[in-house]
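USER:
Make up one protein:

ASSISTANT:
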Amino acid sequence: MWDLDRDARCEIDKAGTDPQTGQTKRGANVTDIGAAQIRRLEGADAALYREIRLEALQKNPEAFGSTLEWESAQPLSWFEAAIGRASIFGAFLNGRLIGIAGFSVREGSKQAHKGLLWAMYVRDLARGSGVGKMLVTAVLDHARGRVEMVQLTVVSENEAAHRLYSAMGFVEYGYEKHGLKHDGRYYDEFLMVKFLDEGSN
């Protein structure tokens, strides 16, 4: 069973540096993403997905429900199967996978109207470039016609991510105190939702 990072949470850096959304302060190393392409990952992308996923778990362990130790022990076929079981979108630049975002639908007929945005991560070279916005847009476009709403969670200290999601129509509907615990420290999380039928918002 593959990990959806505790109910398929959206994995966000706790400290406001926002490796996932690309909304950090623009710096000299920000990549020009004019040629970046967003597409859904396929089984053939398993090695690239494994590489970026383990990088995310190594660099921001406090932001993920899974662990580097556990996922690094999994064979490549595990990552290929993960891609096959969910909708995982990747941002590609010159053949390199520079960002990912996952989408899944809640299980069970009573929750099948709800989707989850999870596993967001953008590599250093693309932070501040808008790649995060592109990935979220791709997830929302994919979700329309499949679910009525998309939910996510974001660590409360990550103000940049919170601003991005708010700007894209997500609203808070809850607050989970001590939602994550890493190395003895607790991290609170905002629960956010975007209703795809804006009339329901």
Summary: The radius of gyration is 16 Å. The first strand starts at residue 37 and ends at 40. Confidence is low (pLDDT under 50) at residues 1-30. Strands lie at 37-40, 87-93, 96-105, 114-122, 149-155, 171-182, 185-195.
